[in-house]
């Protein structure tokens, strides 16, 4: 382990790519998005959505106190590649130690993962990644570096835990990047303040980069448990965030990266010129409206999640013999174990086809085939849960 940042090792960031010139290496299938593309818009009852209930454009404008004429007057030309300065200033206000200049707006949050991996990694670079995780956090790192070590969140009775000492053991002299996601998708795990501080100290001591996906930040069950952003506390952190989850606005595709290091930020923007070039103007205007309504939007999402978790707690208490339930500390999702099920994947396909209820199988997020993801952010949760429970009672455990 390096005792401190090594300038010789920290080469100017360059593009990643195939290990041999001209070689084409196919990336793994994007299992989660393939699954949702197949079922999301044809299955009536979604129990696994990760976002929160959305609202109409008109509702958003009214909540933000913005006149619709402001949106109708938006010119549809190119925008600032890094993002509208007023929007970046509004985002910077959400953080303690971030300036507008350190923010890069994205065409979509997913773009931020791609840009970060391309900017930081070359073939052979060692990566430590929190698992389970959203596909692209793992697959893109593996595709570019070919050298990823998982760092698993481990189940405990009624919860989850993460051991910073295990991270210290996994780090190597060639470790370039550590990837984490808090609040965690799919478990709903949130580290305690002391665990978070220990994690940052270990990464800082090693001199590695840290990619922290904070898309679910703001959805803590107890707001007092909220952690400081990695961008506020570690100069070599790159933070991904956006409006899809806590704000309930995934259709805007509005997201951003926080990058404090100027050289890295410039290299990342260069990669952005090869992807979306600049954010869409209407999305930026609506994103500014969302930030003007930041508090009521996030409180609305927290309220929906809290109500749905009450229903879930009662449901899992009634069916304790069927499920391993570990309540989420934060976020809008939870990873739930299925007892006496041969394959969660087969089970979820059957549920979608025969019952009209959608759960996400654990293997699609790198978890075991004995668990599924539940999502608590939608207003339709109660009806979906009732439909699922009716099926369980009628089948008397068939297939479980």
Query: What is the H/E string?
Result: HEHHHEHEHEEEHEHEHEEHHHEEHEEEH
Order of strands across the widest beta sheet? Answer: 2-10-9-8-7-3-4
Helix content: 25-40%
The proportion of residues in beta strands is: 15-25%
What gap, in angstroms, lies between the N and C termini?
Answer: 47 Å
Q: What global shape is seen? A: globular
What is the averaged pLDDT score? 92
Low-confidence stretches: 1-22
Summing up helix and strand content along with how strands pair, one would put the structural category as alpha/beta
How many runs of DSSP E, i.e. beta strands? 15
Oligomeric state of the chains in view: single chain
Biggest sheet overview: 7 strands, mixed
If helices are DSSP runs of H or I spanning 4 or more residues, what is the number of helices? 14
Overall radius of gyration: 21 Å
Q: What do these coordinates show?
A:
This protein has 400 residues and is of the alpha/beta class. 38% of the residues lie in helices and 16% in strands. It has 14 helices and 15 strands. The chain has helices at residues 31-39, 57-64, 68-72, 85-92, 109-120, 135-145, 164-170, 193-206, 230-233, 262-272, 281-292, 294-318, 344-355, 381-395, and strands spanning 45-46, 103-106, 126-131, 148-152, 154-156, 159-161, 175-181, 209-213, 237-242, 255-259, 323-324, 333-338, 357-358, 360-361, 371-375. A seven-stranded mixed beta sheet has the order 2-10-9-8-7-3-4, sandwiched between helices. A four-stranded antiparallel beta sheet has the order 11-12-15-14, with helices on one face. It has a two-stranded parallel ribbon with strand order 1-13. The model is unreliable at 1-22 (pLDDT under 50).
């Amino acid at each position: 382990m390096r005792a401190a940042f090594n300038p010789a090792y920290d080469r100017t960031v360059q593009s990643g790519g195939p290990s041999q010139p001209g070689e084409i290496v196919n990336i793994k299938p994007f299992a989660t998005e393939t699954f949702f593309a197949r079922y999301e818009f044809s299955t009536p009852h979604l129990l696994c959505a990760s976002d929160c209930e959305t609202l109409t454009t008109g509702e958003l404008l009214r909540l933000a106190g913005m006149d619709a004429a402001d949106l109708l007057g938006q010119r549809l030309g190119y925008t600032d590649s890094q993002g509208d300065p007023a929007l970046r200033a509004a985002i910077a206000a959400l953080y303690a130690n971030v300036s507008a200049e350190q923010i890069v707006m994205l065409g979509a949050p997913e773009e931020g993962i791609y840009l970060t991996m391309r900017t930081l990694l070359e073939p052979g670079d060692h990566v430590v990644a929190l698992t389970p995780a959203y596909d692209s956090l793992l697959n893109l790192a593996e595709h570019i570096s070919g050298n990823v070590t998982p760092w698993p969140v481990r189940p405990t009775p009624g919860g989850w835990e993460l051991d910073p000492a295990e991270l210290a053991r996994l780090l190597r002299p060639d470790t370039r990047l550590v990837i984490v996601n808090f609040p965690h998708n799919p478990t709903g795990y949130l580290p305690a303040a002391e665990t978070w501080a220990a994690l940052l100290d270990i990464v800082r001591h090693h001199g590695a980069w840290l990619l922290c996906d904070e898309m679910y930040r703001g959805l803590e069950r107890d707001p007092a448990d909220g952690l400081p952003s990695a961008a506020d506390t570690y100069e070599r952190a790159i933070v991904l965030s956006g409006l899809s989850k806590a704000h309930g606005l995934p259709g805007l595709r509005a997201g951003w990266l926080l990058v404090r290091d100027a050289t890295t930020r410039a290299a990342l923007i260069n990669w952005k010129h090869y992807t979306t070039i600049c954010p869409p103007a209407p999305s930026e205007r609506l994103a500014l409206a969302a930030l003007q309504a930041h508090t009521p939007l996030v409180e609305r999402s927290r309220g929906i999640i809290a109500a749905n978790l009450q229903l879930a707690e009662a449901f899992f208490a009634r069916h304790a013999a069927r499920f391993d339930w570990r309540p989420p500390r934060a976020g809008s999702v939870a990873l739930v174990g299925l007892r006496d099920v041969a394959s969660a994947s087969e089970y979820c396909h059957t549920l979608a086809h025969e019952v009209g209820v959608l759960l996400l199988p654990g293997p699609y997020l790198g978890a075991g085939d004995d668990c599924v993801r539940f999502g608590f952010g939608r207003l339709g949760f109660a009806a979906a849960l009732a439909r699922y429970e009716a099926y369980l009672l009628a089948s008397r455990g068939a297939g479980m």
